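User: I'm curious whether this sequence folds into something compact or stays loose and floppy. Could you predict its structure so I can see for myself?
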Amino acid sequence: MSKTTRATQLLSQAGVAFTIHTYDYDPGAERVGLQAAEALGEAPHRVLKTLMAEVDGKPVCVVVPSDREVSMKKLASAFGGKSANMMKPADAERLTGYHVGGISPFGQKKTVPTAIEEAALAEPLVYINGGQRGLQVRLDPKEALKALKAVAASLVA
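Assistant: Here's the prediction. I'll summarize afterward.
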């Protein structure tokens, strides 16, 4: 497995301090984020999942703790929209250039508005997908927020 991805390159270029952590990705896992947390030996609320969605038909990226579900109402509100829905996996892969299970908010092919669950910012360090299945980057969530030019919002149900 290569530990250099578009995500890690973007973080390095932005001067963000991070460490790389690999684990055995289970393609059959019901919930990939929870499987990653277990494999890394970390609490699920510190392993963030990256989801692609649409607000009023426009693509957005959402980063939330792996043990939580996104509230579509809160997601729409975070981006000033009326309605939100999850993006189809094939559309998410085409837009980001990453495979489902390895989608990172960093280094996507097309930059889209991004929101991070505000509760995650209270953690000193979090894990976020590094752009490949089985690859996580551990970093300060406030640095991730800055690097992504993201908004912090209450996004979970």
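Summary: Helices lie at 6-13, 32-40, 72-78, 89-96, 141-148. The beta strands are 19-22, 48-55, 58-65, 84-86, 114-117, 126-132, 135-139, 151-153.
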